[in-house]
Amino acid sequence: IYVDDVAVDFPELKIYMLHCGLLHNPSIAVYIALRHKNVYTDVSPANPIRMQYPKYYTDIEHLRYCEFAIPDKIMFGTDYPFTYPMSFAVEYFRTLPLSDKFKENLFEKTARKFFEL
Questions:
Q1: Helix H segments across 59-116?
Q2: Contact predicate 48/83, CB 8 Å
Q3: Which of 82, 89, 93, 95 is deepest in the core (most CB within 10 A)?
């Protein structure tokens, strides 16, 4: 809710909404990123042992929704130092049945766009 308000008041400010609404409603987070050109979000995997517990980390339907709705506004984030080993989390996401273009955005292009690299 607060991200939505700030995005309305400061439309030129780039906002990076962490964890795609984890513990709240990830669908609302996707909606806010879709609604505002200046709002981006991420999927940040937790510790691999606990990765299965937050539903959206393993919910392929949520990730496909992101791929459809905000393919160039979502990034692969980290929960360092809680994500260990990081290579496991990266490989996990690389093997998901999502398009190569979406994975390229997730791992590189969106971050380059956000940080203007």
A1: 60-69, 86-94, 100-104, 110-114
A2: yes
A3: 89
**Does the global pTM surpass 0.70?**
yes
Task: Look at the block and give the residue holding tokens 């979406």.
Answer: 102
Rounded to an integer, what distance in angstroms lies between the CA atom of residue 45 and that of residue 81?
Answer: 11
Structure tokens at 32: 């806010």
The structure tokens listed for 73 are 């506004």
Q: pLDDT, tens digit, for every residue of 42-82?
A: 887 655 555 554 454 557 888 899 999 999 999 988 766 66
Q: How far is CA 41 from CA 25, 28, 85, in A?
A: 13, 11, 22
| Phi, psi of 16, deg, nearest 5 | -110, 105
